[in-house]
Every structure is written in C-alpha cells, then in structure tokens.
Design goal:
The complex is a heterodimer of chains A (115) and B (111). The radius of gyration of chain A is 13 Å and the shape is globular. The termini of chain A are far apart. Chain A is an all-beta fold and 115 residues long. Chain B is an all-beta fold and 111 residues long. Chain B has no helices and 11 strands. In chain B, strands 2, 4, 5, 9, 10 and 11 form a 6-stranded mixed beta sheet that branches. In chain B, strands 1-3-8-7-6 form a 5-stranded antiparallel beta sheet, with no helix packed on it. The chains are: A mainly beta (115), B mainly beta (111). Chains A and B meet through strand 4, strand 5, strand 9 and strand 10 of A and strand 4, strand 5, strand 9 and strand 10 of B.
C-alpha cells in the first residue's frame, strides 16, 4: 500500500516568503507528527495530531510556524516569513496508534532551503 | 532538544563484521526505538524495545536496554554493504507518542 507522502520534495524560498508543506499520511492512521531535521542531526519533534486535534505543539520553534489537520487526514505545516535558520528537512510521520503499536512511518521529507 | 547522545558518531567496519552502536537517554521512557536513515529509503523503523524488556532480537539485529543506566545498544551482526546508513535511537515517554531522537551514528560498511 501507499506510504506517507510529502510535497513538495524540495522548496527554495527567499527570506521573508511564506511556505506550505503538505503531508499525506497512511490511510486510516490516527496520529500524525511533524519533525525538523537539520543537516547532520537527528529529527526534532515539532508537533503532533491525533485525528484533527493538535495535542502537542511544544516543539514549534516560533509563532511563525503553524500546522493544521482540519479533517484528520492531510496535514499542512506553514512557515511564515521564512528565515535562514528554517532551512532543514521537514519530516512527516504517521502511526496507527493501535494498542502496542508505536512504530512511526516516515515520509521522504521536504528539503527547505531559505536563501 | 535531543533526548541524548549516541556513540560512536561514526563507525566504519569491514563487510561481515558486527557493528555496535550505543545510545543514552535522559528521562524515563515507555519504549525505545531504533531507526535507520539513508538517502534511498528515508527514515525506517527497525526495532522497538519496551521499558520492561532487557533484550530483543529481529533477524540480524539485537537491541538491549538498561533502564538503570538509561542506555541502549544496537548490534548488527554479519554486516552487509546495504547496512550503510545513519542509525538513530528514539525515546518515547509515557503518555505521549512523540519521539525524541538521539544524534545518530553514521555506519559505513566497507565491501
């Protein structure tokens, strides 16, 4: 079956532009996560949804970052007024949250470069 | 912030040898997971060990967990060129599904 997909795969933005990154989770997966991965580092948690409810947004680095999942399926991560430090790979993951199953399935990521 | 550290940061071994990577974490966990990342397949789940388990096996993978030392290790036996990748441990706390990743070990298998 289809895995987690993300679009675009690559995005170049000029400093100050707004960007929107899309994530299509595995069908039926209740939980959806966004992570940010800087070059040479491990992924860092940004935010987490269970269905359409955003349960944890403690990792969002500033109020320029906003995520939504209005119908409990597709999610969008929006970054307003991009800065150079926002350059990173943004990873989306989903999980089924069935009892005893904690595995997260990751998408290929969106590589954002802010110039 | 990262949950903890992994060591070594980089490891190069000959094909057929065993590779061991270590991970330390900071807080109490529900489970600890290991993921592999390479450019071809992205980030892929390898194995999960629960906080009440001490050792787990999956194929050529063996993971151990020592909650008293807040540490885990991943052993890959009989390494293959295809095992070349970065390996990350990821801790899951109680009551929250989010993962807190380590800094990663870059493994290179020399044919």
């Amino acid at each position: 079956g289809a895995g987690v997909s993300q679009s675009p795969r690559y995005k170049v933005a000029k400093r100050g532009q707004d960007v929107a990154l899309r994530c299509d989770p595995i069908s039926g997966h209740v939980s959806l996560f966004w992570y940010q991965q800087a070059l040479g580092q491990g992924p860092e948690f940004l935010t987490y949804f269970q269905n359409e409810a955003q349960l944890d947004k403690s990792g969002l680095p500033s109020d320029r970052f906003f995520a939504e999942r209005p119908e409990g399926s597709v999610s969008t991560l929006k970054i307003q007024r991009t800065q150079q430090e926002d350059s990173a790979v943004y990873l989306c993951a989903s999980s089924s949250w069935s009892f005893g199953s904690y595995e997260q399935y990751f998408g290929p990521g969106t590589r954002l470069t802010v110039t | 912030s990262q949950q903890g550290e992994e060591d070594p940061q980089a490891l190069s071994i000959q094909e057929g040898e065993n590779a061991t990577m270590n991970c330390s974490y900071k807080t109490s966990i529900n489970n600890l997971q290991w993921y592999r990342q390479n450019s071809g397949r992205g980030l892929v789940h390898l194995i999960l060990i629960r906080s009440n388990e001490r050792e787990k096996h999956s194929g050529r993978l063996r993971v151990t967990l020592d909650t008293s030392k807040k540490s885990s290790s991943l052993l890959i036996t009989a390494s293959r060129a295809a095992d070349t990748a970065s390996y990350f441990c990821a801790a899951a706390n109680f009551g929250n599904e989010k993962l807190t990743f380590g800094t990663g070990t870059r493994l290179t298998i020399i044919p």
